[in-house]
Amino acid sequence: MFNIRKKIYSVLQSEEVNYKATVMGWVRTFRNNQFIALNDGSTNNNLQVVAALGLLDESVMKRITTGACIKVTGEVVASLGKAQRVELKADSLEILGDSDSEKFPLQPKKHSLEFLRENAHIRFRTNTFGAIFRVRHSLAFAIHQFFNDRGFVYMHTPIITGSDAEGAGEMFRVTTLPLDGSAPKNEDGSINYKEDFFGKSTNLTVSGQLEGELAAMAFADVYTFGPTFRAENSNTTRHLAEFWMIEPEVAFNDLEDNMNLAEEFIKYIIKYAMDKNAEDLAFLSQRLEEEEKQKPLAERAGMGLLEKLNFVVNNDFERLTYTEAIQILKESSHNKKKKFQYLIEEWGADLQSEHERYLVEKHFKKPVILTDYPKDIKSFYMRMNDDGKTVAAMDILAPGIGEIVGGSQREERLDKLLQRMEEMNVPAVELDFYLDTRRFGACPHAGFGLGFERLVLFVTGMTNIRDVIPFPRYPKSAAF
Ligand code: 4AD
Ligand code: MG
Predict the structure, then answer these.
(1) Is residue 194 part of a domain?
(2) Per residue in 342-361, pLDDT tens?
(3) Cα separation of 367 and 227, whole Å?
(4) Whole domain around residue 39: which residue ranges?
(5) Residue 480 lies in a domain
(6) Ligand 1 atom closest to Cα of 408?
(7) Is residue 477 part of a domain?
(8) What is the number of structural domains in the chain?
(9) Closest approach atom of ligand 1 to CA 404
(10) Phi, psi of 384, deg, nearest 5
């Protein structure tokens, strides 16, 4: 019964008229006891279903409410109305699932994003979230396409690990030990993880990079694309506790190759979504334009969404070193007029998101790749530069977002790596497997991590990261 269904997208897209079709979907609105706006998620555009007066019993008509699920068979005909090219003249209509319109959370009106976040289980059924999650899908697909076309091997790195890949200590513990104080203890009173499920202390991964590096030392070109978890208490519009990350790792690449790969990659996937999701992006662009109109002039982005995406795809990213960036920031009118919350006083300062956004949005007005950061503000695995002060790191900063990619050339020299680990208190015993890659056939290599939700934010023009992942996890919230 169900496989005869025609997707609304294909009904609307096709030039054909005067043929029989069966469609199924959810009612968005029902007007004048005749006109049903039906949506099945294949496109934001609704199919107008016309139920001629007298076709349906009063009792069925009452059940055609916003949110109800229906099946309609009829004839696709040219529409007399101006709003649509074709419509479906119903011959028969069946209610698959009722929806009490008094209780259904979505009413035919505009809802706030906050309200929809609280009703994330239903928000897929709105135009905005329909568009966002179709775009998200396309971006995910394009990522695999990009790497597959270039001969990369997709490596599934583990989600439960025993190491802290970033050395930042922001991990969720994984344990089956009781939490009521009865967990087995060592003589010194600490918990005895030898008795735990894995016989050691484990956590959810913060990054698949270390395992990615192991695979790159055999397949040369690999990538992982999976969920990562950070227990950082950041209640911002850019942070999630559970997010997806794409991490390529490439043997024989240096920092410049790494930047080239990242730039080509970002442009490719954005271009792919622009081609595949033109209607959804046009809708989101319109949405953003309306939202921008509510803001004071000084806070408006200036460029429309499509304009911005086109610009990014067609222009080179600006490349400069951390040292050059600090110079620009230090001399900026923002710094002099104390408009930054954290003033830039000297070389070595960690860049806050306000600084990143100043560089991208005010100074260069395009994406920026910053390289060669001070070693003290970056991770232990980054390759030490000859100056002994900076490492071969790169961050890509995007307008409206800030950091979207973090990566580096890796330290392939065993002695230098060991020295950095010691300086940064990264326990070498736990990472002995990792050090083996430096013992047996080490080579220069590089990689990066792209935060998937930050990319989706950028492409959809949304402003809160909680709106671009189906069910966001953040401090004090793990609903659904
Ligand atoms: O800069 P990060 O911490 O780099 C790494 O994890 C490296 N191991 C990646 C690599 O070289 N293979 O994270 C990479 C990216 C960031 O640039 C950001 O886009 C995203 O992951 N990210 C987050 N996205 C959402 N919520 C969070 N809490 C995030 N933390 C990082
Ligand atoms: Mg980073």
Answers:
(1) no
(2) 999 999 999 999 999 999 99
(3) 25
(4) 8-109
(5) no
(6) 11
(7) no
(8) 2
(9) 19
(10) -70, 130
